[in-house]
Amino acid sequence: MKAATERKLIRWIHIIASIPIIGYIYGPVSQIPEAALMVKAGIVPLVVLSGFWLWKGHWVKKLFGSQPKNGPTPGRRKPGPPSLKLNA
C-alpha cells in the first residue's frame, strides 16, 4: 500500500472513530452504561493509536523497518577498532 493511501485510510478511521466520543461528551451516550464502556475502552484507544500513527508512524516504520538479512548495506563500514596510523 502506498504511503499516501495508508495515511488517508488511517485519517478517515481517526475521524469516523471520533464521532462516538463527541456523542459521549455532548450527547446521551454517557448515560448508557454499555455505550459509555464501549467509548471508554474501545473507541478512545483506537483514536489515540490512530492519531499517534499519523503523527509518528514514519518514525515507527523506520525503527522497526525491515533490515537486510545478508549483512550490512553496501557502502557502509562494519564497526570496529579505529585504524592505527604511524607517523614517520
Descriptive keywords:
88 residues; mainly alpha; 2 helices; 64% helix
In terms of topology, how is this protein built?
Layout: H1 3-26, H2 33-64
Helix fraction, binned, reads 55-70%
The poorly predicted ranges are: none
Average pLDDT score:
86
In what range is the share of β-strand residues?
under 5%
- The arrangement of helices and strands along the chain is HH
Description:
The protein is mainly α. It has one domain (3-64). The chain is built from 2 helices and no strands. The protein has helices at residues 3-26, 33-64. Helix 1 (3-26) packs antiparallel against helix 2 (33-64). The longest helix has 32 residues, at 33-64. It is elongated, with a radius of gyration of 24 Å. The N and C termini lie far apart (59 Å). The mean pLDDT is 86.
Concise synopsis of the structure shown:
The chain has 88 residues and is mainly alpha-helical. The protein has helices at 3-26, 33-64. The termini are far apart.
